[in-house]
Design brief:
About 30% of the residues lie in helices and about 20% in strands. The radius of gyration is 13 Å and the shape is globular. The chain starts with 8 loop residues before the first strand and ends in a 5-residue tail after the last helix.
């Protein structure tokens, strides 16, 4: 069972790759999520920080999403499943 964010912060799933602002108390989607920045940063600064410290992510876009409640997580998981099935362009 995935845990919950102990604080509002930016988390990175490098396998996807996906940068997410996850609110305090909101559960993590499945996968490994690494806290990378304080939640007070603007998204473009968090993305820049991620690109600087994770060279493998320099070349492509690092999608950003805000997961602020359980409904956001459920929708994100549904979108990932649809992408895997080829239902999303």
């Amino acid at each position: 069972m995935p845990g919950c964010a102990e604080e509002t912060a930016y988390y990175l799933n490098g396998k996807l790759p996906q940068l997410a602002l996850i609110a305090k108390g909101v559960r993590f989607p499945p996968g490994n999520w690494l806290r990378v920045a304080d939640g007070l940063l603007p998204p473009w600064e968090a993305e820049s920080f991620v690109r600087e410290f994770f060279p493998a992510l320099e070349k492509g876009p690092v999608p950003y999403i805000a997961l602020l409640c359980e409904m956001d997580v459920v929708q994100f998981e549904k979108d990932l499943e649809d992408e895997k099935k080829g239902l999303v362009a």
